[in-house]
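User: C-alpha cells in, sequence out, please.
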C-alpha cells in the first residue's frame, strides 16, 4: 500500500486573505480585483518612431469606490454598510 502525503492548507494562498472584508460592497458585491500597470517606452509609429515597447508590468489592485453610509433596509431597520458609489448613484439603496 502506498502512502500519499497531504499538503497543509496553510501553504495555499487564499484570495480572501489577500483582501480586506470591509472592501466589499454590500449591495453589488464589488470587491478589489488584481491587475497590472503596463509601462511602455519609445515613440509611436504614427509619430515617426519604431513603435512602443512594453518595458515592465507592475502588479496593483483595483479597489472599488466604497462609502460607509447609513442604509434603510426593507424591514425598516437602519444599518451602516459599505456601498459602492455606483450603487448609490443608480438608486439601489435608500439613505437613512
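Assistant: Sequence out:
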Amino acid at each position: 500500500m502506498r502512502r500519499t502525503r497531504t499538503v497543509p492548507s496553510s501553504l495555499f494562498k487564499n484570495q480572501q486573505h489577500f483582501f480586506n472584508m470591509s472592501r466589499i460592497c454590500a449591495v453589488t458585491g464589488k470587491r478589489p480585483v488584481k491587475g497590472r500597470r503596463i509601462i511602455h517606452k519609445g515613440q509611436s509609429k504614427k509619430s515617426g518612431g519604431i513603435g512602443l515597447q512594453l518595458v515592465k508590468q507592475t502588479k496593483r489592485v483595483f479597489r472599488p469606490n466604497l462609502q460607509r453610509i447609513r442604509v434603510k433596509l426593507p424591514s425598516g431597520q437602519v444599518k451602516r454598510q459599505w456601498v459602492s458609489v455606483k450603487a448609490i448613484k443608480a438608486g439601489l439603496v435608500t439613505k437613512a
